[in-house]
What does this fold into?
Amino acid sequence: MATHLVIGDPHCTPKANNDRFLWAGKMARDLKPTTIVCMGDFASMDSLSSYDKGKKSFEGRRYKKDIAHAHDALEKFNKGLNGRRPRKVMLLGNHEDRIDRIIDETPELDGTISTKDLNFKEYGWEVIPYQEPISINGVHYCHNYPTGVMGKPISGDNIARALLLKNKVSSTVGHCHLFDYSMCTIPSGRKVIGLSAGCYLHHKESYARNTQRMWWSGLIIKRNVRNGEYDLETVEYNAVRRKYDK
It folds into this structure.
């Protein structure tokens, strides 16, 4: 049976150290999953943010700093793995998509910056384009699923249930940083599971100062994954830190 280790949006940023990536790698070393899936927004790419550009908080941000910090996080994760080579799948999120969006808005940058600068493939990850799903052992993974005429991400207080109703297959998403789980049984008896995977970070985000307390941070283990069914285990951020911050 397959085992998946799921990393919710980690938002690697120069304003936070990268020790948590070493801890996650060590946990993966001990767990020996067949597949590791990062749900997207691995790199926060704060230097390309349009949310707070021009504000005091934006001072000192640089593209090269964001890229270098992401490389350091990827290196620490592999160091934690200590030579183990599970399948590693990197979903691109809307934060990595900031690179493509700014190229589209500023065409003269085409050829000078790229999501390839993040070197995900060089660190052993399969790269899945933003909003493109991938099915692994019957579980469909995507950073967020666009829906409706406007293509807005499936969201809401009951996002896991919404995933079941709209996708009708076992689906796991990142993006909203909330943890939510829902399961239903179809007439054949097979279980279909919707999951919002939370995040994997502990630093404060200014844009979420009134809502960050609602986020769930940690790592998710799916055991006995087959045909979209699995046994779920959650490991909260501080539990990961206590065990592997040595």
